[in-house]
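Re: folding output
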Amino acid sequence: YFFFSAMSYPFIALYDDGACILRAQENSKLPMQISFIANGINVVLNLVFVWIFHFGVAGSSAATMIARAFAMIAVLYKLRSPNMKVQLRDYFSIRPEWKEIKRILHIGIPSGIENGMFQFGKLAIQSTVSLMGTAAIAALGIGLMTVVGECLGAGEKEEAVYYIKKISIAAEVVLIITCLLMFGLTYPITYFGGMEPESAKLCIFMVTCITIVKPIVWIMAFIPPYGFRAAGDVKFTMTTSMLCMWLCRVVLAMVLARVFHMGPIAVWIGMFTDWTIRAIIYTVRFRNRKWLAHQVI
């Protein structure tokens, strides 16, 4: 499985690069459509390779590889169109521009470390979660970096601040709606799912907690950092993310769960503490505007 997955990594890289070029030309619809089709291909080929041809794990990973290859080919084909403002045709003439690469890596490496630590932290507490018989790990990402990057590239700092506020408000509205929707579905799911009374009670209690806490602190904990990274303030966000992750989401959760035997709510407390501290730090950072003092280009 890992062998076929590794073979598909170049396909992912080229698709992501091509999709970024399309989005930079205000064409975000096409990458989304290609992604939908690629995922459909992945599902269909998984059914065919695994259930019809009985290829097992190799069939599942091969289906993923083929779907990723399709996405890459579709994006690169579109970029050859003469109607595109930015075209990609003569591949062998492409040469690295080390100065630009250095600027990109200056943003990308700290962001990659931050995201990597976030994923590693989730894996670190996974054993604790699995001992409780539940998994409560979710992720949400919002593409704010492009908007803020374009504003700052044009020298419009106030617009960057404005769009961070605007997108944060829009995300807050969506978050409240989705939290209330999931809260409303919790009762019928636990009932029709035939959960044991104690398990259902615990599930409802935990969903109630996250429905209350998440709309209050999640947005400021995760949305503004995208704008900070676009402005070049990557070291601060990386340091904050790593410290909050390890001290709250990992260490605190494990201590509460394994030492004080608080059960599944220990993971929730660690996660809520992580969100709250991040929200406070990033709110102060956003208001004092020190993140605008950085310069990418």
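--- second protein (sequence, then structure) ---
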Amino acid sequence: MISAPYLADAVSCGLVLLDCQGRVLLWNKWMVQYSARNADEALGVSLDEACGVRIEQRIHMAIREALDFGLASLLSHVLHPSPFPLFSGGGTERIKQAITINPVLTNSGERRCLIQINDVTTMAAREKLLREQTRQLREEVDKLTEMQEQLRCNESRFRELTRQVPVGIFETDLEGCIVFSNERCQAITGFEPEEYMGQPWHSIAAIEDRDRVNVDWQKLRNQGERIQIEFRCANKSSMRKFWVSTDSMPVRNKAGVVIGFIGTLTDIHDAKEDALRNAQQATFDTLTGLYNRTPFNERLMNALSNAGESHQFALMFIDLDDFKQINDKYGHESGDIVLKTTARRLRQTLRADDTVARFGGDEFVVMLAEFRSDKDLQVIVSKIERGISQPINIGICHVHLKCSIGTAVYPQDGCDITSLMRHSDQRMYDIKRIHHSTDHEENVNLKQKTKKKVDAGAFM
């Protein structure tokens, strides 16, 4: 049968047995290893003497309770981490200890105290690590909860912003089909949410602009480029056709892969109409619809830049004779009718590649793109004169007009705009003076003939 001392040395914890006086009766091998005190030095002396230091008071109190009252005690390493001077591997830091103090009765009924000491250094380290991990996990959970709350607030804020903004906002998948649109977007297009969802966003474009919009959309889809397009939109509910502008860009994930597209839709109809109207006014004469000075000069400059030595074109200055008399006699509204009719007849007489403009008042300018000879030029001049001389109905009567046309030919009469303009303008005034002189002679002859008829009538 194995004796008690051998059994005490076999266990992997410290065992100390005290008699009723508190003297050491057992100091096992584990205690020798961790305290560096031989059993011979420890046996028969007090616990303080065996340990070589004064043991904490709470250990002594627990021992007295066990010896005097038979009460057991458990000293956790959490509250009392290292009450005994025990060291591992010759280190200087005490090992963490869990201590159990139990009363023991001998066969004779004498009460003794058994102290069991367990090394919980590793367990304490693990508990510390676990507590740290738990703390970190708790912080991460709190942070995640905070982020989720922030995300919820941001989502709520985003939805409210998309509802309040004065522009339409929409999001599509990779195929360009709507997956989200705000109320403003639905109001602009006239679609109900259930009708709009899943439909290609560019289907809102009017028929005449849809192909152009689709080409730009394919550029965004294939090249991932941001696009800004202006096109006409047809509202599904009101059937109103109006101008809108969209600014669309790709949406990418963390890896940079395009996962969809997001865009804005803005009603720009009034601004677009104003811009088109201003462009029209900047380019065309409001009354006649002909070019004004600026675009005509640009086309003339292009013609000069592209003209070669063998290529010639002509410039014509046209002035309506006695136009002021029509304004004075019949009013400016009648004068406007004459000007619009003249412009229409010029367009009908000239070729499509010729350019005609109104420079103001009753002055018109024509650039003949190409002609073969001076004879051809005179033929065109004659056609214009005949066309303008036809009667013009101004509502209350028909009026007859003549015109004075001055011509300049590139490059014979000039190689720049100033020279050509001056030359044709001067010829126009020369011809106008001839017309006035001829008209004056005709009026004198007419008066003389009338006077002769009157005199002959009086004689009779």
